[in-house]
């Protein structure tokens, strides 16, 4: 199968999985809020974020493992592949042990941080959420990362999609029967055990590689990558932790509802990059420097165009959606326009780093970029604590926005100078254009004001109109201001047509 077909297949499967996971993320929390209240939803959200400090290890070690697989897979070196599989498996077993210790400490400490809930009520939720995550991430992670490196992302995506659908069905049934939140989270999360089991069966059936149990091979730069992971997970969870300690669980619930939307948008955008790191991992090994530059230039044109369209549209659509989504909820005020807009710009500042961070990790430059990665969470922690006292929800979002810019700029500058060998100003050109487009749309939206909608049907109609208008504006501006890149794309399309 050609590289183009592989990428398109992975993008399509990822888009399906991201749509289903976004639907899951939108439906389940609002049902929990309506059934158990904002305080319980805030508690569940807070526990989930605390557990994520360990669980999100995939984002730290994942790029290292995939980078270690690229060359032996291209060269069909089975012995080397077996060594990487063995080292990965051993690494995740160690982390699983650390995770269990962390879970015990969380059970001892966390219930004393929050108020309003029985000790054992809180501990039971920690164990249920933690154990289900342990199964989901650690039992199948080795196989998952191997398949990603081999550009078989579609296998993971379709398996995850089925797990999400099964989980939604089980949770809906349990909520209808008025079961406790503990039973809902336990039974609903059991669906995720399917994922590691299916991936293991697929790997055993499809490949002849083995996991070497006893071998001295170590993953290159694994601790440098872990350093990146620690910085990234602290950054991802600072806001909820700060709100849990210095604010209220109701505000945690409000934050979580907005983050569901921004995370949903992020997952849809990331579906466009599914398998791209593996693709560039091979390109960096096989292709010339000029070829890498051309492919990256075309990829970033598409990425930033689509990303700007999606997040610019969300500026206009987020408050109307929240008003419909939280209709009838009276125990907390979920409408906060300033907070919504800061969250959108923070998310945009985060996702624009992906082409450059993916390229950096595909090249295997973990050690070289680890120092500036720690600055991001440190700045976020300091600013969030200072701002939350004065500005509440908006304060933590501002801290996140400012800190995210630091690491994003770091990746863009590093990848431009050390991998692409291009002027930094050339890399920033499309990003600056995209930001100006976002600001123009934001100003026009503020002048017009939010459109009131009373149901999802009206919101979908509004969304289609907004999406079409913004798409025409951004595509036209990008084609006019980035003529060289757009010409390359049109020439490729002409050749393909012939």
Account of the 3D structure:
The protein has 498 residues and is an all-alpha fold. It has 2 domains: 1-220, no CATH class; 227-498, no CATH class. The protein has helices spanning 3-36, 38-55, 58-75, 78-109, 119-138, 141-149, 153-176, 181-190, 194-206, 222-246, 249-270, 276-286, 289-325, 337-351, 354-362, 370-373, 375-391, 393-420, 424-448, 456-481, 483-497. Helix 2 crosses helix 11 and helix 4 (78-109) packs antiparallel against helix 5 (119-138).
What is the mean predicted local confidence, pLDDT?
81
Cα distance spanning the termini: 21 Å
Helix content: over 70%
Low-pLDDT regions? none
Dominant shape: globular
Give the tally of structural domains: 2
Biggest sheet: strands, sense, closure?
none
Tally of individual helices: 21
Please give the number of β-strands. 0
Order of helices and strands: HHHHHHHHHHHHHHHHHHHHH
The helix/strand class is mainly alpha
Percent strand equals under 5%
> Any idea what the radius of gyration is?
23 Å
List keywords for this structure.
498 residues, 83% helix, 0% strand, mainly alpha, 2 domains
Q: Any chance you could write out the topology, listing elements then pairs?
A:
Elements (H helix, E strand, L loop, with lengths): L2 H34 L1 H18 L2 H18 L2 H32 L9 H20 L2 H9 L3 H24 L4 H10 L3 H13 L15 H25 L2 H22 L5 H11 L2 H37 L11 H15 L2 H9 L7 H4 L1 H17 L1 H28 L3 H25 L7 H26 L1 H15 L1
Helix pairs in contact: 1-2, 1-7, 1-11, 2-4, 2-5, 2-10, 2-11, 3-4, 3-6, 3-10, 3-12, 4-5, 4-6, 5-8, 6-9, 7-8, 7-9, 10-17, 10-18, 11-13, 11-14, 12-15, 13-14, 13-19, 13-20, 14-18, 15-18, 17-18, 19-20, 20-21
């Amino acid at each position: 199968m050609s590289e183009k077909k592989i990428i398109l297949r992975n993008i399509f499967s990822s888009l399906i999985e991201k749509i289903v996971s976004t639907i899951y993320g939108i439906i389940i929390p609002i049902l929990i809020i309506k059934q158990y209240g904002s305080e319980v939803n805030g508690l569940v959200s807070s526990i989930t974020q605390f557990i994520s400090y360990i669980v999100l290890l995939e984002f730290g070690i994942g790029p290292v493992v995939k980078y270690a697989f690229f060359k032996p897979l291209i060269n069909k070196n089975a012995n080397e592949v077996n060594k990487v599989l063995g080292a990965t498996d051993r690494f995740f077993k160690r982390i699983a042990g650390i995770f269990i210790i962390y879970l015990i400490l969380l059970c001892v400490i966390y219930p004393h941080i929050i108020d309003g809930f029985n000790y054992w009520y809180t501990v039971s939720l920690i164990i249920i959420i933690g154990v289900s995550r342990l199964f989901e991430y650690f039992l199948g992670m080795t196989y998952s990362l191997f398949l990603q490196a081999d550009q078989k992302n579609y296998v993971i995506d379709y398996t995850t999609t089925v797990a999400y659908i099964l989980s939604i069905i089980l949770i809906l049934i349990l909520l209808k029967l008025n079961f406790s939140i503990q039973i809902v989270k336990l039974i609903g999360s059991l669906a995720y055990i399917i994922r590691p089991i299916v991936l293991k069966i697929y790997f055993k059936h499809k490949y002849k590689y083995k996991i070497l149990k006893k071998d001295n091979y170590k993953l290159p730069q694994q601790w440098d990558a872990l350093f990146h992971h620690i910085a990234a997970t602290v950054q991802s969870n600072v806001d909820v932790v700060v709100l849990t300690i210095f604010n209220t669980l109701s505000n945690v619930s409000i934050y979580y509802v907005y983050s569901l939307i921004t995370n949903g948008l992020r997952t849809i955008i990331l579906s466009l990059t599914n398998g791209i790191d593996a693709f560039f991992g091979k390109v960096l090994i096989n292709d010339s420097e000029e070829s890498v530059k051309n492919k990256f230039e075309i990829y970033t044109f598409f990425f930033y165009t689509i990303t700007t369209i999606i997040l610019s549209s969300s500026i206009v659509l987020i408050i109307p959606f929240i008003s419909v989504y939280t209709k009838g909820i009276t125990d907390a005020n979920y409408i906060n326009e300033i907070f919504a807009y800061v969250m959108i710009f923070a998310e945009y500042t985060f996702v624009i780093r992906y082409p450059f961070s993916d390229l950096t990790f595909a090249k295997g430059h973990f050690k070289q970029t680890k120092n500036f990665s720690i600055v991001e969470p440190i700045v976020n922690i300091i600013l969030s604590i200072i701002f939350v006292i004065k500005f509440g929800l908006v304060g933590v979002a501002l801290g996140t926005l400012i800190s995210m810019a630091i690491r994003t700029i770091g990746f863009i500058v590093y990848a431009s100078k050390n991998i692409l060998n291009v002027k930094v100003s050339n890399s920033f050109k499309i990003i600056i254009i995209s930001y100006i487009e976002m600001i123009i749309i934001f100003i026009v939206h503020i002048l017009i004001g939010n459109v009131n909608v009373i149901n999802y049907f009206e919101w979908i109609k509004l969304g289609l109109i907004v999406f079409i208008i913004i798409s025409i504006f951004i595509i036209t501006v990008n084609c006019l201001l980035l003529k060289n890149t757009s010409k390359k794309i049109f020439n490729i399309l002409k050749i393909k047509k012939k």
